[in-house]
Amino acid sequence: MKAIIIAILTLASVSVFAGDSGCGLGNVIIQKNSKGLQLLSMTTNSFFFTQPLGITSGTSGCSSQGLVQNDKQLEYFVEVNHEDLSREMAQGSGEKLSVLAQLNGCVTPEAQAAFASMTQASFGKILPTAQTSAVDMVQNLKKEAQADQKTAQMCRIASN
Amino acid sequence: MHSAFFIFLVFISSLSLAANQPLDFSHSREWLRLLHFDHGKSLVHTMIGKDDFFLAPDGATNPTSELQATVGKMFHSLSDVEQKTQCRFLARRDFLLRHWSEIEPSTNIQAKLKIQDCPEATAWLKKLGADSVSLIFATAYLNSAPSSFGHTFLKIHNAKNDSGKDLLDYGINFAARTADTRGALYAMYGLLGYFPGTYAMVPYHQMIKDYTHLEGRDIWEYELSLTPEETHRLIYHLLELDGTYFDYYFSNRNCSWAIARALEIARPDLDLNTHQDFEVIPLDSLKVVTRTPGLVKKIKYRPSEETEWISKERSLSDKDRADVQKLFAAAKKGKFSEQDLSTVSVEALDAAMDLFTLKGYEDHKKFDQPQFLLLGERAKRKAAALSANQAAEDLMATKIPPSKSPDSSTLQLGLNELHNPNEQNSEAWVGIRILFHDLLSEDQGVSPWSHLEFMSAKLYRSNHQQTQIGHYRILEILSTQASSWYAGPFSWGTSVGGDRELLAPTRMHSHAKAKVGYSFDLLENLRWINLLEAGVMQTLSGDGSAVLGLQSMAVAKFGRLFRAELGFEDLHLQSQERRHEITSQVVMSPWLQWELRAGWREEDLWHKLDKVVSTETSVSVEHHWIF
Q1: Does this model's pTM top 0.80?
Q2: Reported ipTM
């Protein structure tokens, strides 16, 4: 009887206290998940240690950290949030879509609104299939933004 | 010549006296916090797990040595040693420069201190651009009573992200590195501090995604009044800790302790109870912050995906709900492509997209393509969704912030009338519960309609002057997410403790049980919970016996003021013993932290063919506080 009580107690107390003791983020494990490695490649290196544990570089083994490189901000954001961004593009508005717009150089609210409308109107070209990758989404988005006069002007989108 | 030599001697001895000055200041609260010495057991040993955090050979046990070694290596060494040390320990350097006149009062050589350049750190810090800090609280999620403790972490804000781009800020989390450890070993390591705990930094949008999407946890952002200078100090110290770790204890050296400690280092005159040894939970830690005058500037709410879905589902028209149900059923059966989406309204499309996002986490294959088709149809409609900010503000207006929930420990005072065939007793009793809440407690911020109890006991004193413990719980958990057309989770629970024998109140019977079943919302604020129980329990004669039983309860909530419960429990023990219990209870919360309860319980006890009936009526007052 005592053994059963202790067993139930131990296992139950795990769930009581242990809720957030893990990484808290289950989705991006560097060693096992190629998405994690992909995100890691977009962050800066540590300048303190060869094997730091989290702040300055992305090798905690838990998820990628460090600071996102400037020229990778857009790609990183889309890589992490492409499901939500797809939804907000279809809806023509959203917080993440606004951030995406600003990352594309759309500073004013009017420019952001123009960008959002453009993504809704060109949705089928930005996201042609359910399997469209984040990288392809970024490329398609840039192309459509350049092609749309209003957006290109208001957001000062440079042609690559 | 003699006087010159004498003056020289005085000068030299005053220098060595100065070198000894750090003695007193080395036990200041600020210095001990930077080294993570503390009150309680860690006073003689740091909580930092790696020795290379310390510059003195005995630095891990001697804060005075460590202060002397730090001063020496930072300001009285060769240039390259000074630079390496100053740049490695930016928070310590900041501390020394602010308190130099107290550390070396007899010699004012501050003008001669060489402040070394740290180009890599400076560039990194400039890129981070830390200007201010928010304390972030992730609430409990449905069907997980243990997540009611919540989780705290930080958002480091860069002013250039002011214009609605704070998702690009960085989040700072403190977590245990548990690798692949599972099960009983996981429990043991976590309780005994065998996991290393470290701070980690992740872009904020990435950090909150799992909380809001996968786990269904709402996010409350508490913007703090930390200045840019204080924010830098926090970051300096996290940089110092990079490469080292703490021993992570589930109960008291966990995420909430570490986050509170980081804030205390940022603003040294803050006291956020990090010296407390017994237990600290994130929700309490949040309240210590929100109750510190002038520390919180603003609150922002981010609903989870699940909260948004539930809110949308409730406001769907009957036709729209029927459409969403049809689409959901079609997706599950793999027949989605046959659906005519042109007749589905924008509101129904938006709701279905939320539902399919949630369901996609469980089963990508079934829901990815249907979601894609929904998105395509929605894009044709041109109508913009309600702005996310407005939607969040509307939802926030219906919620009470977790910082305004009842505190985690409870003191109870009550009066009872007990009737059984042998006696009739009036009793007074006092109860204490270390953590946390039951089904009839106010539930803002915690997993609603749940029970989470850790370490409680009631002491009874009858009019016959007998005093005894009549109720105790080591652990009691109950999670009861209701089954609905879109989700059918188990309700589940566990209970380890004991209750007194109403027939013979001086005796207790202890138990350890597991429960599983289903719950249903008969109305929005009326839940019916049904459970099967199995475990072990003491019989009338005190022996252990297997027990199997049923429990059914109806719980109702009437706003914040009233809650009520009606329940019955039927337990069968091996020894031909059967216990049947009917309970009813009403609770009123006239003010936050106070409850009035009245209850009635009848227990029927069968042994073989004999039946005995006992009843207990009680009234009590409860007060909540942070332990």
Answers
A1: yes
A2: 0.86
